[in-house]
Amino acid sequence: MLREARDGSLVNASGAELLGLVAEARGHLARAGLKKGDRCALLAHNSIRWAAADLALMAEGIIVVPLYARQAPAELVAIMQDCQPSLILCGDEALREAITKAWPDAPPRVLLIDIFAGATAADRVAAPATLSATDPVTIIYTSGTSGEAKGVILTAGNVNHMLSCTTARLDQLMGSPAKPDSVFHYLPFCFAGSWILLLTALSRASVLTLSTDLTKLADELRLAEPHYFLNVPTLLERIRSGVEENLAKRGGMALALFRSGRAAWERKQSGKSEWLDAVRLALANWMVFSTVRQRLGPNLRALICGSAPLAKETQLFFHMLGIRVLQVYGLTETTAICTLDDPRHVEPGRVGPAIPGIEMRAGENDEILVRGPNIFPGYWNRPAETARVLNDGWFHTGDQGEANEAGNWRIVGRLKNLIILNSGHNVAPEPIEEKLLRALPGTEQVVLVGNGRGYLTAIVTGVAARDGVQKQVDRLNAGLPHYKQVRAFHLEKEPFTIENGLFTANGKLKRDAILARFAGEIEAMYCRKET
User: Which CATH architecture has domain 2-227?
Assistant: First the structure.
């Protein structure tokens, strides 16, 4: 059921072996005296033991607080001091020492491996705890793009509903396969969408292969040969850029066929095919597209993408190669998912229709409102914050969006990211940032600035020449109204990363932190332009 990719080989766990690990962990929890409703922090990298510990804790009615192993110790301690766990499970000694140093009076800290040893038959509880639909099963802390992280409580009812929805969508994707689904996974289980994928895979006839070394992702993918896997846009953007750059370097026949096939495919999508386009497409597919598909995985049915907006051009790129990209939209507060692409009716640039059983509508300023059994009951110890986002059962997502006649949603941006110029014009930064990013090879991120100012400026990270950036800015500005035009920019070689505190673990910009870090550079852009 579960596999770990380690040093070019696979470490396997059958269903029986996984249940054995769960039983051993439950024995340890029984000896530790934890009871239903207690919290337990789970601080470790993805592994078979992580999954077994998670299942054991839920079986005992203990509320799991999954934590990101790469997060700064001070931030982890702040989260744990907020939720007050009775026990902290640490993936390795280094993590335990880091927590001990930052919080000497922390609750008991136990290595994850140690809870799978020493259990006796007398320790093991025969039946799992009885959970009602309203019982909390986890508290997942939001990534905190601005301000401190908040603990999102999710219940058994939330999870049960979501698993029925994800299973139904995967049934549509896979049909009735003769063998179990092969699924690859590299995103940390401490994120809601990643955790839901784990539980979905365990609920289906699946073999889930866990990545253990992101520097060997390509090798692990080849080892897993998955039918599908969950992604953030960053990876798909890098794959696309890598393919295009490699073909440009090779040149010759491969590049010519790729360009000819892409042009033919684009004309076909717009209904303007030429009489030789079928031949051009066939040659490109035979000589180039099929090679790229083979390298990504010979069994690949789909790439599932969520967490942040995906450029429409990137989604179309993979569709051209013959690989469907299915988008997912949701927040931790919606048990990770609000919409899921229907594999039979994918509309590029949109994130699919609302999942069965929930309602979605656009409220004031086109804010997306959601109501249904997937909505969380509230934030841990934050009644005022809960009241602010929950009104009459409707969850106010803070995202702007619109649905077309087919019910497929398009995400425009975040309300709190909205730039309000001193002229009163409102600008959603994400579409402009995305267009500039796509136009600038070697660029890592683009962040638009201008709240309360007279015009927009931008911070551009990565390897980019000033003349090249200016050329693309001028080209973009030519098609925009005056208030959406970028009038100045700052180049920064170092990209925004998790390590420098300017990027969240699930691929989102920490805009407030970026504005604070580059306050001087931003001020210089406006002073320079105004003089």
Answer: 3-Layer(aba) Sandwich (3.40)
